[in-house]
Amino acid sequence: MLNPIEIEALKLSGFIAIVAISISIIPGIIIAWIISRKKGTISSLLNMIVYLPLVLPPVVIGYLLLLLFSHNGIIGNFLLEYFNISINFSWKGAAVAAAVVSFPLLVRSIKLGFDTFDYKIEEAAYINGASKLDCFISITLPQILPSIITGITLAFARCLAEFGATITFVSNIPGETQTLPLALYTATQIPGTEESAIRLVIISIILAFISVAIAEILAKRTNKRILGYKH
Amino acid sequence: MNKNLIKYKSILGNFKSNINLSFSDSNIIAITGLSGSGKSTIAKVICGLVKPKTGHIIINNKILYCSTNNINLPPHLRNIGMVFQEPRLFSHMSVKNNLLYGQRRNALFDQKKFNKIIKILGIEKILDRNIFNLSGGEAQRISIGRALLSEPKILILDEPLTGLDTPRQNKIMKIIKEINKKMAVPILFISHSIDEIIFIAEKIIIIENGKAVAQGSIEEIISYKKLSYFNSGNTSYSLIKGIIRQHNKDNLSTIIDVDGIELVTKYISDKTNTHQIIKLYSKDVSIATNIPKNISINNILETKIKKIKITKQTGTVEIHLRLGKQEIISEITLFSLQKLKLKVNMKVYALVKAISIVGK
Description:
The complex is a heterodimer of chains A (231) and B (360).
Chain A: H1 4-37, H2 41-55, H3 58-69, H4 74-83, H5 91-116, H6 120-127, H7 132-143, H8 145-161, H9 164-170, H10 180-189, H11 194-227
Helix pairs in contact in A: 1-2, 1-5, 1-8, 2-5, 3-9, 5-8, 5-9, 6-7, 8-11, 10-11
Chain B: E1 4-12, E2 15-23, E3 28-32, H1 39-47, E4 54-59, E5 62-66, E6 71-72, E7 80-83, H2 95-106, H3 111-121, H4 136-149, E8 154-158, H5 166-183, E9 187-190, H6 194-200, E10 203-208, E11 211-216, H7 218-221, E12 237-248, E13 253-258, E14 261-266, E15 275-281, E16 285-288, E17 299-311, E18 316-323, E19 326-333, H8 334-340, E20 347-352, E21 356-359
Parallel strand pairs in B: 3-9, 3-10, 7-8, 8-9
Antiparallel strand pairs in B: 1-2, 1-4, 4-5, 5-6, 10-11, 12-13, 12-15, 13-14, 15-21, 16-20, 17-18, 17-20, 18-19
Helix pairs in contact in B: 2-4, 3-4
């Protein structure tokens, strides 16, 4: 059915999306909290920076990442010198690119959760003996779990769809950085691979459909459990 | 002796408070006043949710806040039990986990104490229930239980009965009294409802514009004039003291003696010679210049006008009347005032249509 290159691309897409979400979830929650709760110049500035990848052309992001993470770039040089890590032209770079482009969607959803959360409940937890961190972990996070799940699913879907920043930053290497959209792009560029292109299109549609369905089911369940109503 | 001292000055926006309260026993102390008088601010200051400008807060000999020594304990280290107007339960946890939230953070689990508290609150059967399947009264009882189980040095209840219907209010008021008796924890009960505080409290503190303007037992503060306005809906009333003189089982009535003047009311189950606090709504007191005949009203009292207060905007007039050493208010219209040509010191008859007993 699928040829080895297509299977490889499918696996890689899923793997890169999981890694991307894993590295962005904690910073995502922290930044969403800062933007939602803190008022001030730093918070507003952070808000704008976080949303930039949503409006910038992905090529611009890819090129910026290339500048930052190249061996002469600020971050690339630091990683190479102190940790002997190079993420250029590897799946690690693809994961970073996916994390950056999906970050605004993750933060937006979680911020919405913090915005609509009733902070009076936190006061009750403090008075009951919970420190701020204890309360955040035992009350606030579980209460906004539906928003976190929505954010993760949206970001996951965005990672699967990522093309521009990835191809600019880490190129299109089969088995290393060639995710589904990149494999599809390759298939459309070479004569005689139309069938492969169609198969990849169908997989992409199915994958998108499944992730949206999972998001819906999870959101319904957690909403019912935590907020007491059906979405 | 356990010392509790609440003394602070604070400014929130344009609102200034200057509070100085102290109490040493484990009684129920009620704080009352009009909405916006700064009652709830006291609770927030004690809990540490609001930081006062200067002053000190000592609960159970422990300094929670002291501006001169720069002490300001965070809320979670203050050992305060707090129940808000809304139950503020944690909806992602079961009833039992809600109850144990504060307990787990403050003390070792004590099954006996747990059983005792859930029994007082009457919540044995709903421990495994989901928070969403609780009624308003049940949710508020869980909230009280959560506060009590956190080993508080003081229990603060901030308008805990607002939003509940009367039978549920009565049930929770009885529970609060029982908690005070069985748990030996001082209770600070904040409420605007005079009926609630008379039923519940041994000491009452009246707050006005961020200051305690009167404090004492119910008997002592009853004559505080502005007390009659502390009610939602702006209905004024007067509170007077009386003693049960006589019961009449044939027509189911009771005679109450108010400074030598006899008031007839419907049958009260309390014994003769017990003290009663009577509430007279100003609208239920009419005025006549002569004794009317053939009238259903039983209480026609000879009295003198002490003061006349006219509110031009609404056309209502408050007539303050002497009743023994006490005072009652009659609310009439400007039209009636002019028709009867009422004046201060004039002898009139007060027709009292309804009397309600609010406490002992």
